[in-house]
Amino acid sequence: MRPSSASGTASFTVRADDASGIAGVVVMVRDDLGWHRLDLDRMSGGDWSGSRAVQSGSGAVAHFVQVVDGAGNVTTRAAKGAFRTIAPTPRMTADDAT
Description:
The chain is mainly beta. It has no helices and nine strands.
């Protein structure tokens, strides 16, 4: 997972792989106004990407990622509920999401 920001926009790129395929990737983002759902778009090479406007006086938002595979299984990556300043971080693979 690579969250990043620019001008009040939080952008996420997630790499997800599964033998049954990936049905969808959702990021839930919490800023100063509450929780917001962001459905990521399928890109090439197993990447899913999307962005949304956020409002955060401190520059930090909480987020978690859910990946649904083709069999309907769901895995979540929550970063232990920690607030993060949106900045580039290492990518998350499907192995990291379990």
